[in-house]
Amino acid sequence: MNGADTAFVLISAALVMLMTPGLAFFYGGMVRVKSALNMLMMSFISLGIVSVLWVLYGYSLAFGEDSGAGLVGGLDHLGLAGIDAGTLTGGRTGIPVFAFALFQLMFAVITPALMSGALADRVKFSAWSLFITLWVTVVYFPVAHWVWQPDGWLYQLKVIDFAGGTAVHINAGVGGLAAVLVVGARVGFKKDPMRPHSLPLVMLGAGLLWFGWFGFNAGSALAADGTAATMALNTQVATAAAMLGWLGYERVRHGAFTTLGAASGAVAGLVAITPSGAAVNALGALVIGVAAGTACSWAVSLKYRLGFDDSLDVVGVHLVGGVIGTLLVGVLAVDGVGGAAQLGRQAAGAFAVMAYSFTVSWLLARFIDRVIGFRAAEDDEISGVDQAFHAEAAYDFSAVGGVAQSRAHVPALAPGASGAGGAPGAGGAPGAAIRSKGEKDEKNEKGTTGKKVDV
């Protein structure tokens, strides 16, 4: 066992785990306040469901040896049978299989969570939980086997996907699109404003994703070596370039540099460099970043033209970014790897995953919709799925009213006393400023609490 590599992979697994809460914050800030908790839960529930399934059969389906067709792993490792603390991976890595299994589990967790943004505000939590269970079983686990297991058919085809451009981002992006087409648009789509309720939360989530992505990308080397270092550097470079590319496009098209654009651009760069970062140099990473930032910024507007309600731009960022990063391996890869032949392999891998994931995801969403209903009731959607499914609210606004009310009843100071309205012994009405402030607060409180605000 290589102790340094083992430690590196375990730390990387912890960083990737942090990405799922980071994604929850990123998505949670982008929705309206009435569904913020539901958005957080749609990511967090993946940590629970997928972790259990991974032990029961997920690892075996993804990384077990198959019958030779290269489609899905066998059942030799159900319940992690045949593996113990002393079982090591083969080849140069020399790390415990348990460390590798933990690292790959975190990829399996975040992939369905990525899809949740496409369905924000409008699906039953029970239906979403069932969808995750079925989707990882028949979509993610087989596709991960295709891409990363040595006997998988895309691995045999020599498709390069270092850390998940096809298996994670294209897979989730097109799966989310299929589910959206089944569920339909939110009430008020294209009519009502649906602005993010907390941009600071979005930026926090983007920062956590950026931080955790170093484990996601560099950790995929499975060793603390030059490949990991290259991947880490290219991750930073591409992400920075994509953020600038998105902001530049946004400034030209819309006349402003937005915080949401900066966060979304960074995520687009992270997505695009994921499959390609180990095969390109730093200049190639810059090109990939700028291409992803500008293309994804343009792509998010397609939902309005084409009429599909991808709530938080999963298709525009993850599907488009994943395709860009996957294809550009064939154009920008160094050391004789790139070229027309490799570009053809990359395209075959990308579109094979797209076709399979879209078809099966659509069928699963239709099945759930027919059996238990995927869509939340319209009244629940309008009033807020937080209360409907979780009996909670993200923020306690009643406390704000309580503070205003207590300030409104501050007693006036006695004549000659010191107060905010004047110096001791001053003439006029000592304490008038405090009374005036209290009266204004009381008026404001009455004025605001009597007005219904759509959040």
CATH topology: Ammonium transporter fold
Query: Considering DSSP H and I runs of 4 or more, what fraction of the residues is helical?
Result: 55-70%
**Which parts are unreliable, with pLDDT below 50 for 5 consecutive residues or more?**
404-455
Domain unit count? 1
Beta fraction: under 5%
Number of helical runs?
Answer: 17
The assigned structural class equals mainly alpha
The CATH class assignment is Mainly Alpha
Determine the mean pLDDT.
88
SSE string, helices as H and strands as E: HHHHHHHHHHHHHHHHH
Number of strands: 0
Q: Please tell me what the overall shape is.
A: globular
Radius of gyration, in angstroms, nearest whole number: 26 Å
Distance between the termini: 55 Å
Tell me what the CATH architecture is: Orthogonal Bundle
Major β-sheet annotation: none
CATH superfamily: Ammonium transporter AmtB like domains
Characterization of the model:
There is one protein chain. By secondary structure, this protein is mostly helical. It has a single domain, classed as Ammonium transporter AmtB like domains (Ammonium transporter fold). 67% of the residues lie in helices and 0% in strands. It contains 17 helices and no strands. It has helices spanning 3-30, 36-63, 97-115, 125-148, 153-156, 165-183, 199-218, 226-254, 259-276, 282-299, 302-306, 314-332, 340-371, 378-383, 385-390, 398-408, 432-449. The radius of gyration is 26 Å and the shape is globular. The relative contact order is 0.13.
